Input
Amino acid sequence: MKSLRWFTVCAFALSLAPSLALADDTSLAASVQHRVQDGLLKPLAAFQSRFSRGRPPPHESRVRVLSPTTTSDSAGRPFVAFAVDVNYGSQWQENDIVGCAYPKSGLLFVKIGDAYRPASFLLGKVSDAVPGVCTAAPSS
Output
């Protein structure tokens, strides 16, 4: 009985880990979509609904993975670009949020102007731009 409980605790803890599976392109895209949904869109919808003067949450949103494979940044860390499209009722607005996900760490970044910031920036957390993230390393 104790080993079943230990297995359940370990399985639960692993399910909370932010890392994304890199088994193949399909699971990579699904993992990134899931991570963006859980790590950005759900908290953003809760954040937007609490403040009535801000922009209302969209009726629907969808995550698009822009590349089926990872790209490496200048530090050699693999990332995957994504875009979030929103629907406020009549039509979809593409690229409402653009960013990237780092599969190994689970970190999410969003593009604000010409710079990338941690996704928590959209949730009201003050954060500076992070140089070098979400930008493909020059090919040699």
Summary: Residues 18-123 form one domain.
